[in-house]
Specification:
The protein is α+β, with helices and mostly antiparallel strands. The chain has a single domain, classed as Sandwich (Jelly Rolls). It is about 20% helix and about 35% strand. The chain has four helices and twelve strands; from the N terminus they run ααααββββββββββββ. It has a six-stranded mixed beta sheet with strand order 7-4-9-2-1-12, with helices on one face. Strands 3-10-11 form a three-stranded antiparallel beta sheet, with no helix packed on it. A hairpin with a 6-residue loop joins strand 1 and strand 2. The longest helix has 16 residues. It is globular, with a radius of gyration of 17 Å. It starts with a helix and ends in a 6-residue tail after the last strand. The structure holds fe (ii) ion. The site of fe (ii) ion has 5 residues, from strand 8.
Length: about 200
């Protein structure tokens, strides 16, 4: 066992059991050495499982809002670099249209409902930091349903009529990763850092 894996195991007694199970499942997938996209796909059933955890759903009622482009940072893997986030959305939230740079993202709604809009570019990509977009689909997010967003895919998460929470598996920690926000009216593509990462311990009780 590597020193990092040892440290992970030593911390595990304190974590919420559903989170610890999810971490262990993801670590086992990454240990197989597959490409990142394959690892992410193989983790989707485990993300589905954690978003159905009744105790975690109950605990999420206490979580602080992540409005203002924030993420709760639940875990970063010391060996494989994947990160687990949570978000708490206010009712009717209108999320920006954005990508997450080179990072793979899997969204799993934990409580409430959300919708995930997907976009494609319709311009010829000849102008720097300019993009014309077309809405290609809207997925309904609810507990137990997950959505995988590959690197540079353009999307927007919209809140439902009530407060909602989600668990997100990312192939790497956001924050310093350069991603883009898209202005649908002007075509401007604005590079910048990802959401602010707020460390958040999800402990067993
Ligand atoms: Fe996103």
């Amino acid at each position: 066992m590597s020193m990092n894996a040892q440290a992970t195991a030593e911390q595990s007694g304190k974590r919420h059991p559903a989170l610890q199970t999810f971490i262990d499942q993801c670590r086992a997938v990454w240990a197989g050495g597959d490409d990142t996209g394959v690892c992410m796909e193989r983790c989707l059933p485990y993300l589905e499982e954690i978003t159905r955890d009744a105790d975690l759903q109950k605990r999420s009622e206490e979580w602080p809002s992540t409005e203002g482009r924030k993420n709760l940072l639940l875990y970063v893997d010391p060996d494989y670099g994947f990160a687990i986030n949570a978000v708490v959305r206010v009712p009717g939230r209108q999320g920006s249209v954005h990508d997450h740079g080179h990072v793979w993202v899997a969204y799993g709604v934990l409580t409430g409902t959300e919708s995930l809009e997907r976009y494609e570019r319709t311009d010829d990509r000849s102008r720097e930091l300019y993009a014309e977009l077309r809405l290609t689909g809207v997925g309904d997010g609810k507990p137990g349903k997950v959505d995988l967003v590959p690197p540079f895919d353009i999307h927007s998460e919209k809140g439902g009529p009530t407060r909602s929470t989600a668990i997100i598996l990312r192939s790497g920690k956001l924050g310093e990763v350069i991603q883009h926000q898209y202005n649908m009216e002007t075509g401007a593509m604005v590079p910048g850092p990802g959401p602010t990462q707020i460390p958040f311990e999800l402990e067993a009780r």
